[in-house]
Amino acid sequence: MNPQGNLLITGATGFTGIHACHHFLKRGFNVTAVARKTAYIPKNVHVEYCELTNKREIKSLIQKVRPQYVLHLAGQNHVGQSWEDPLTSLEINSLATAYLLEALRQDAPSCKSVIVGSALQFDLKQLSTLSHPYSLSKTLQVLIAQSWASLYHMDIVIAKPSNLIGPGLSNGVCSILAQRIVEMEENKVGKILEVNNLYDRRDFLDVRDAVRAYETLLIKGKPQEIYEVTSGKSKSLNEVTETFKALTAVDFKIKSKSNEKLEPFVEMKPIELSNLGWEQEISFSSSLKDILDFYRQK
C-alpha cells in the first residue's frame, strides 16, 4: 500500500501532524503541510500558510495544491478552552471543515479526505450526552463531513480517535505525568505523582499507530463511514502510573485528588478499521517508555 500522490495535511505542526508528516513522507507521498504560522516542519515537506477559518485563503490553497488526498487534523482540541470561548471552537472545528470541504468540492472534487473527529462526540439523539462546547463542535464537524459526502457524492471518511499518546509535545495526561517523572529523575521536584482520580479509565493508542490507521482510511475507507481509531482496551490511571513506575528507577508516591468511583467506561472498538487490515503494533508500555525517553532527551 504505497500510492504516491499529493497529500495535504492540516494541523501539521501539532502532535499528530508532525508524526503524520514523517510517516507519509516515508510512504512516498508528496506532502504539503498547512500551518498558521512559522513552526517546526519535517524536512522535505512543502509548507503552505493558511488561516482555515478564512474561506478565501482555503480556496486559494486548494486551487494551488490540487490535492489528491487530505488528512484534516487541524482544530481546537482543549475542552477547557471551549468553555471559555465556544464560538472559536465552533469556527475552528466546524466552520473551517465546511470551508475546506466546499473548496475541495469546487476545485478538487475527486480528492479523498479523512476528517479526524473525536471520541468526545455526543449522540445527536440524546442531548443529555452533550457535556461541553468542544463535544458540540466536533459532532457538528462530523455531521458536516457526512453531509458533504452524501449531498455532493464526495469521498470523505471520518476517523474517531481515542486518546493518542507517544513521543512528542502533547498536553495529554501521559505526557504530563512523564514530564513530572523526568523532573523527579533530575531531582527538580519531590517524589510525588498527583492524578485527578485513579479510577478514571481511558483508551490509549500510540499516535504512530493512529497515523498508520489514517493511511489505511485514505486508501480503503468508505465514504461517510465513521471508523473508531482505538486500541479497544481501556486503562485506569492507576494502571498508567504503575506502568510508569516499572519504567523508572524513581520510587515515587501516587496522590489521587479523588478516590470516588466513576461511571463505567464505554469502550471503543476498532472493528471496522481492523476489517480493512489495520492492527495495533505498539504496546502501551512501549508508548510510555518512548514518552519518557522523549522528555529525558529534551
Automatic annotation (TrEMBL):
Signal peptide start-end? none
Q: What Pfam families does its record include?
A: Epimerase
Question: NAD-dependent epimerase/dehydratase domain: which residues?
Answer: 8-229
The record ties this protein, via InterPro entries, to:
Epimerase_deHydtase, NAD(P)-bd_dom_sf
Task: Return the SUPFAM superfamilies for the record.
Answer: NAD(P)-binding Rossmann-fold domains
Which source organism does the UniProt entry give? Answer: Priestia endophytica
Highest taxon in the source lineage? Bacteria
Q: What is this protein called?
A: UDP-2-acetamido-2,6-dideoxy-hexulose 4-reductase
Instruction: Name the family.
Output: Belongs to the NAD(P)-dependent epimerase/dehydratase family.
